[in-house]
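Can't paste images in this forum, so I'm doing it all in text. The chain is below; anyone willing to post the predicted C-alpha cells underneath?
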Amino acid sequence: MRKLDNNYSFDSKLVDDYIKDLQSKLPEYEININNANDFSVLLTERANCSKCKGINNCNNIQQGYCTDYVNGEFGFSRCKFLKKDNNDLITNYYLPEKLLKARLDEYHTNTESRTKIFKYITDFTFSIKNDKYVSGLYFHGGCSIGKTYTLAVIANYLSENKIPNTICYFPDLVSKLRNDYYSDKNSYEEIIDNLKNTKVLLIDDFGSENMTEWLRDEVLGPLVNYRMSMELPVFITSNVLPEDLKAHIAIEKDPDSKQKADRIISRLISLVIAIDMDDSKKYNR
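Text version of the structure:
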C-alpha cells in the first residue's frame, strides 16, 4: 500500500490536518502518516459503494471490490452486487468445478510469493480490462503448495470482472487432443481454436504430460507462437523449474530437438513471468 514520502518537503500542519480529518471520519482506526493515503482510498470507496446501484456503475479501483482494513492489513471486500457465480465466462477442461469457486478475497497472502501474486492479479485484471497487454505468470514449485488453487482464483477473478478465460488440466487435455486428432477432427480443431484465441489461457500442471514430438511440434509450438504474436496472456503452473524446461520440451538430446525447444522457450519467456511458490510450505487457501 502507498505511503507518504517522508523525504518530501511539505507543510507539516497541512499533513496533520489531513490526518486529523481522516481520523474524525474513521475513528475506529489508528491513522498515521504511513497509512493515511490508503485510509483515504478506503473512505472514498465506501462513499462510492453507499450510492452505487450496480456493478456496472462501480467507480472503485478494483471493480466489484471495496478497499477494507481487517486485522491490521488492507485488502478488499466483495461487492454485494457482484455475482457469486460467473463460471459461464470460464471454459474449463478437466478441473473440478468446485475448484472454480475459489475467490480472491479468500486468498491467503501469508507468504512473499502469495503477496506478489495477489497484487499482480489485481493489476493484471485492471490492465486487461483497459485493453493493455500484460504478461501472465509461471508458477513453479513442489506439490501441495496451492499452485492449482491459485490458478483457479485467477480464473474466477477474471470472470467476475467479465473477462472470458480458459483453464485446463494439461495432462488430461493432451490425452483428449491426441484422441481427437485421429478420431474427431472437428472437436480437435474446436479445442485448439479456443486455446489459441481465449482472452486469457490458464494451464495447470504443465510438465506432467507425456511430451512427444507431435505435442511439441503440432500443438505447443503453434499455440505459444500464436498467443505471443496476438499478445494474448498465459498463466501456467508446473513442477518443472524454468531452467529445466528445455530438457522437458526437447525430449531428445539431438541439436534439432534442442533448437525446437529453444524456439518455444524464447516465445514462452515473452508470455510469462516466473514466480517460485515454494515459500508456501503447505497447501493453504
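Residues 1-9 have pLDDT under 50 and may be disordered. Strands lie at 65-70, 73-78, 90-93, 136-140, 165-169, 200-206, 234-238, 272-276.
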